[in-house]
Write a structure and sequence with these properties.
Elements: E1 6-15, E2 22-32, E3 37-41, H1 48-55, E4 63-68, H2 77-80, E5 84-86, H3 99-108, H4 116-122, H5 138-150, E6 156-160, H6 168-183, E7 187-192, H7 195-201, E8 204-209, E9 212-217, H8 219-224, E10 229-234, H9 241-247, E11 253-258, E12 261-266, H10 270-282, E13 288-294, H11 297-305
Parallel strand pairs: 3-7, 3-8, 5-6, 6-7
Antiparallel strand pairs: 1-2, 1-4, 8-9, 10-12, 10-13, 11-12
The protein binds adenosine-5'-triphosphate.
Adenosine-5'-triphosphate binds next to β2 and α1.
Length: 311
């Protein structure tokens, strides 16, 4: 059997002790398969960064085990260093060094680096190549940190909120780069609180809340559980929905979510759409803003916790 790229079992990590202490990670387990993009998705404070930093060898578990490429991240740090890419925050770099110079420097430390110029181009950093790190904008610093994490062609890369605060164009460029990494066989572990990012990029998602995994699966598996799709439309308030409910298949439900806003949940297929529109036609109702929406990871999180992912 091929060994997992990352295996976290019952990880517990506390900050401080006594009543003022915080249990940041509370018995978290996850497995990252090689060659996949795996997202650790959760709201602020869920324990994502602590988990990632423990995998990177920066934090020691209070209990539980962490294996990275079959090794111990703290004990085997030297062996893992050339094989694992991490995005360092500003503390890890020389603030007065120029962007391109820093990237070339990191590239030279590796046997078979990617071309630094290609990375600067892909991440839209060519125009600031001579700018000292500390004068780059937050988003530029973040993209440079990403470039430095992957320039050495790691087998595995940990990305903690790689697109937080980026503008849409930089976000797309980062997503494309992550997709390219996967195509090249790199394993990517991505901590994010953006569900659209997890949905678009991840093969496997671990939804984390209060330091625990509360759901796991591919985005398709997670969003397919329960109501697969929804159909919404608006019309006059107070429509008599019992007769529409009778016309719908058994697994579908309809309700008025707010006055004049209607939501049908179930397997939305062309037949269901036809049933709803013909019921509307028979009742003289013009269904405005008729839309079919797939259930999102945000909906999954809301159902599991009663809260929204983005607070
Ligand atoms: N160095 C620290 N000392 C004390 N408490 C900490 C420390 N780092 C994190 N915490 C606390 O641990 C909990 C988990 O934080 P963590 O940063 O791991 O979560 P996160 O999911 O990455 O959140 P965010 O998206 O906000 O970074 C939070 O309650 C946080 O306040």
């Amino acid at each position: 059997m091929i060994e997992a790229a990352v295996e976290v079992v019952d990880l517990v990590k506390r900050y401080g002790s006594g009543p003022g202490g915080v249990t940041a990670v509370d018995g978290l387990s996850l497995t990252v398969k090689r060659g996949t993009v795996t997202a650790v998705l959760g709201p602020n404070g869920a324990g994502k960064t602590t988990t990632i930093e423990t995998c990177e060898g920066y934090r020691r578990p209070d209990s539980g085990t962490v294996r990275v490429l079959g090794l111990d991240p703290i004990r085997d740090r030297a062996a893992l260093k050339p094989r694992v890419g991490v995005m360092l925050q500003s503390g890890g770099v020389y603030p007065t060094a120029q962007a391109a110079e820093m990237l070339r420097h990191v590239a030279r430390l590796h046997a078979h680096p990617l071309d630094p110029e290609m990375l600067l181009e892909r991440l839209g950093l060519q125009s600031v190549r001579r700018t000292p790190f500390r004068r780059l904008s937050g988003g530029q610093q973040q993209r440079l940190a990403l470039a430095m994490a992957i320039v050495g062609r790691p087998e595995l890369v940990f990305l903690d909120e790689p697109t937080a605060g980026l503008d849409p164009q930089a976000r797309r460029a980062t997503w494309e780069l992550i997709e390219q990494l996967r195509a090249d066989g790199v394993t990517v572990v991505l901590a994010t609180h953006y569900m659209d990012e997890a949905e678009r990029l991840a093969d496997e998602v671990f939804i984390v809340d209060h330091g625990k995994v509360i759901a796991a699966g591919s985005p398709a598996e997670l969003t397919a559980r329960g109501a697969e799709n929804t159909l919404t439309f608006s019309g006059p308030p107070g429509l008599y929905l019992d007769s529409l409910a009778k016309a719908l298949p058994e697994d579908a439900k309809v309700r008025e979510t707010s006055p004049g806003c209607y939501r049908v949940e179930g397997t939305v297929n062309p037949q269901l759409l036809a049933t709803v529109t013909s019921w509307c036609a028979a009742h003289g109702v013009m269904p405005e803003g008729l839309a079919v929406a797939r259930r999102t990871l945000e909906d999954v999180f809301l159902e599991l916790t009663g809260r929204r992912l983005r607070s």
